[in-house]
Design brief:
It is a single chain. 20% of the residues are buried. It is built from no helices and 30 strands. Strands 10, 11, 13, 14 and 15 form a 5-stranded antiparallel β-sheet that branches. With 411 residues, the chain is mainly β.
Length: 411
């Protein structure tokens, strides 16, 4: 008999790690020109946190020296980690310290890296940018909105051109803060071009892209805006032509004297208004753009219109308030000549007489040149044949009893 050998069995048991693993693959990157140092590293396990500090003491160790700017990263997973120290305004060498710690485990040994330092680089100057230009409603001021696109610049200058950027003959300083500048005393309807440039480090940087604006025009600024054109009539047709150079509204009025004429208004050869020969003073308005040609055609229309004078008035601001026919002797507009009273009587033939008494316009400021009265009845029109001062008598014939409407004009 024999006794068998006992068999030896080796058992492997898992080892519980009760300390955090140190970080690996640490890379320090100076961000030259950005005043920053970037720290990249890799954690081998999750949990706890990494505390990263920086020191400007080249002799600092894990347990000595001055460490500042602590940044803490919570490590929810293993793998690459990154953070950046900013606001480094000098070029002293820095050291970086990384501590790995947390609850439930022993901290990893403190690791120190570096030194690392930034390299001095020239502070670059960039071209500023005009973001937009706006004009006021009157067309006399432009606000240039801009981005300086630079730090620590001395000032931003704006240059203005009035010939689409061919030459810049006006310069303005917008200072070294703010984001807009307002240019005053500009001309409505005119185009201005602006170009920005930054002055920094004792010199000008590159100019920014120019931007233009055409100022609004609130009305026509043109020779046609102040027209008083008079001429002798007769039986011929007379045409007055004007060319407009700016957009707006043209207001016109024509006074054709004692005998009414016909007025036709054409824009670029197309009739836009026609006033029949029922009134000796008539008015209207027409919208225009630059380049429009306006024709005012005066046609006597009456064979008896011999040697009659007419006057045309044109402005670009206020429509003319023409003295309109007054029905039943009611007159409300005190700014113009008005009828004070009308009395009736009988003439030698048995017809009606109307004595019209007029009052000058309150704002005339000069002696009355003439008034004219006209009355209508039974479809017929009667008017006095000559001018009068402040009183005149109109007569009907023996059929005057047929009057069904009365209209009086004063001019």
């Amino acid at each position: 008999a024999y006794t068998p050998f006992s068999k030896q069995i080796e058992i492997t048991r898992p080892i519980t790690v009760d300390a955090y693993l140190p970080v690996i693959n640490v890379v320090l990157t100076p961000l030259n020109g950005s005043n920053a140092i970037k720290v990249d590293f890799t954690t081998q396990d999750a949990g706890g946190e990494a505390v990263v500090e920086i020191s400007s003491d080249p002799n600092a160790t894990a347990s000595s020296g001055t460490w500042t700017g602590a940044q803490t990263l919570t490590l929810s997973a293993a793998g690459p980690q990154s953070l950046t120290f900013t606001g480094i305004n000098d070029y002293i060498a820095r050291r970086i310290k990384i501590s790995r710690k947390g609850s439930g485990k022993t901290p990893a040994p403190v690791q120190v890296y570096g030194p690392v330092s930034l390299t001095a680089v020239a502070d670059p100057v960039y071209a500023p940018v005009i973001t937009s230009i706006t004009a006021n409603a009157a067309g006399t001021a432009a606000t240039i909105n801009y981005s300086a696109n630079n730090a620590n610049y001395t000032r931003l200058d704006l240059y203005r051109s009035e010939d689409n950027g061919a030459t810049y003959n006006v310069s303005m300083s917008a200072g070294n803060s703010g984001t807009s500048y307002t240019d005053q005393n500009l001309t409505p309807g005119k185009t201005y071009t602006y170009r920005p440039q930054v002055f920094k480090n004792g010199a000008y940087g590159p100019a920014g892209e120019p931007k233009s604006i055409t100022m609004p025009s609130t009305g026509v600024v043109d020779a046609i805006c102040n027209v008083t054109d008079a001429a002798t009539g007769g039986n011929q047709v007379t045409t007055k032509t004007y060319t407009v150079t700016k957009p707006g509204t043209i207001n016109y009025m024509i006074d054709t004297g004692l005998i009414p004429d016909k007025l036709t208004v054409r824009k670029n050869g197309v009739t836009v208004a026609e006033h029949t020969a029922s009134s000796w003073r008539t008015a209207g308005s027409v919208a225009v753009i630059a380049g429009d040609k306006l024709d005012f055609v005066i046609n006597p229309g009456v064979t008896a219109d011999q040697g009659t004078a007419w006057t045309i008035y044109i402005n670009c601001s206020t429509p003319y308030n023409v003295d309109q026919p007054q029905t039943n002797f009611a007159y409300a507009n005190a700014d113009y000549p008005r009828i004070a009273s009308i009395t009736t009587g009988t003439n030698s033939t048995g017809g009606k007489t109307f004595t019209v008494n007029a009052i000058p316009a309150k704002n005339s400021g000069s002696p009355i040149v003439r008034y004219k009265a006209i009355m209508t009845f039974s479809g017929n029109t009667y008017q006095d044949a000559s001018g009068w001062s402040t009183s005149n008598v109109l007569s009907t014939d023996y059929r005057g009893n047929g009057i069904n409407a009365s209209q009086f004009y004063t001019i």
